Amino acid sequence: MHYSTIKDCDIANGEGVRISLFVSGCTNHCENCFQPETWAFDYGQPFTKETEDELLRLLSPSFIKGLTLLGGEPMEPENQRGLLPFLKRVRKELPQKNIWCYTGFTLEQLQTDGSHPRCEVTDEMLQQIDVLVDGRFVEALKNLSLRFRGSSNQRLINLPETLRTGSVVLLPNLDRTLSTDQNSKR
């Protein structure tokens, strides 16, 4: 597995101050993707034990809320296989941190046998994630008032509750509210 970027003070991709790992490789190829260079699976640097150690070091301060996985596409099967041992390590060494994952696949695709993103580690990978932001970015549904996602089709899924209940449980409303003056200018 390869990665393109590590952001060590990210406040745009999940609640609180986060460490974000942008993995390489994506077959979704969303129109107007903000990082098309990450579509190539060999783009950037190899994800090594040293990379894991550095990420754990960056995650360790108490003001860091958690880890965010983006891409490229973390839920490509080859990326799931590369990420799962690392996520287990995060859970073991830093259990107080939460994990967000952005994917262009839907939760339903990830759970459907025979679909492209589903592989032998998908269920275990999903169990490591606290919030799954699912669905492709769709330019026609772009909405700047949405927090932590770019288009209105994308969902902020509370994954532990969803897996526990068997029904999709969304996070409470995290969208920005515009004042009356701002709304009237639109």
How helix-rich are the residues, as a percent range? Answer: 25-40%
Total count of strands: 7
| Number of helices in the DSSP assignment | 6
Secondary-structure-derived class: alpha/beta
State the shape: globular
Distance between the termini: 44 Å
Q: List low-confidence stretches.
A: 178-186
> How would a textbook summarize the main sheet?
7 strands, mixed
Q: How are the strands of the largest sheet arranged?
A: 3-1-2-4-5-6-7
Radius of gyration: 16 Å
Mean pLDDT: 92
Keywords:
single chain, 186 residues, alpha/beta, seven-stranded mixed β-sheet, 7 strands, 20% strand, disordered C terminus
Task: Sum this structure up briefly.
The protein is α/β, with parallel strands linked by helices and 186 residues long. The protein has six helices and seven strands. The longest helix has 17 residues, at 77-93.
